[in-house]
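Thread title: Can someone regenerate the structure for this chain?

I was given the following input by a collaborator and told the matching structure tokens would be attached. They weren't. Posting the sequence so someone can regenerate them.
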Amino acid sequence: MRRIAILGAGESGVGAAILAKKEGFDVWVSDRGKLKDKHREVLLNNDIKWEEGVHTHEEIFKADEVIKSPGIPDTVPMIVELREKGIPVISEIEFAGRYVKPTAKKICITGSNGKTTTTMMLYHILSQAGLNVAVGGNVGKSFAALVAEGDYDYYVLELSSFQLDGMFDFKADIAILLNITPDHLDRYDYKFQNYVDSKFRIVQNQGPDDVFIYNYDDPTIQAENNKRNFKQRMYAFSHEVELTEGAWVTTNKQIQTNINNQQTNMSIHELAQQGKHNAYNSMASSIASRVLEIRKEIIRESLSDFQNVEHRLEFVASVHGIDFINDSKATNVNSTWYALESMQKPTIWIAGGVDKGNDYTMLEGLVKDRVEGIVCLGKDNSKLHKAFEGLVENIWDATSAEEAVGLGYRLAKKGYTVLLSPACASFDLFENYEERGNKFKRAVRSL
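Best answer:
Regenerated them for you:
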């Protein structure tokens, strides 16, 4: 019996364990941290061997193959040693892809920003069209858990760069690349090109029957495209240029999609999710939907009634004329740029957390124009202070969501917005961006 060792017992690792057990492997799950109760229960119920708080070297090195959590860097000594010994180390996505029925379509979305919204948007369209579709990957359930539980015809998968790094033979039938801006550079030896190469793994193994959908306005994507020879069908989307094929915004603010000489038009004002970034997400979703021959009416209706994901520019409440918006999922500078760009009122900006090598210069113009005060929510806020002192009069520090909301409320006036859009990771004060967003919402509702 072939042995699989799984490092990390989060959503990804537990999903991989269930699928591996179903496919007849001898499975060993190891997590150096403490397992969540729900994950421990799943492993126990499925009679899967596991350990927590330690990695037992002997057990792991018995494996024929190792599935690694996306959160574990390739530079960890154990991963380096496994590869030196010739034991393959792969991602859960790579593993799950082996057990999808050949006729199923995998629509894969990546990018520095907007990938969760686009993934859920596309899932909404395909669901409205009545297709047998599942959504997962870096959002919701793991791909492996979806493959283990059902026989879907379509998988809409959000893929992070960390997941892409562990994928080798996996192939996307439709690959969507939304944008590339510096992010996670600490994992890529602080070299932007390494991160770019990681994102472009979304198109690996694609052939003439596959599709690559990309952002025409992104200079990094365009520069990289010019270096490569593509075999697949390619469709671009643009907010700046009127194209002949793909999707674009016309001078009279219509989103026009043209695939195989079949045209679809929709006013940009009809989109449920407003803002330039959501126009990009909508165009990418529209192209993929037309490639899959979804009816134009269903696409239009779905884009006009789609509800955004939690923690992404999520309106929380209006308190005495002050709006509170939760954008906790904005864990990098570019994502926060989109959030600030969409603010129509004077803004108190709550930012901070674990800085991943951020360059805040791209935010300076927006901060000058729209931000009346900054609340820094993190253990070390020195870089934020250095970047924005002199641009705004008030910069305060907070070490809890409750304190940050209280400061934001006091700094704001009627007609202002208090925006949580951290531009940083959350794990100095919170377990993840969801906990940060939920605590922000609770604090707002208790005002």
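The longest helix spans residues 276-291.
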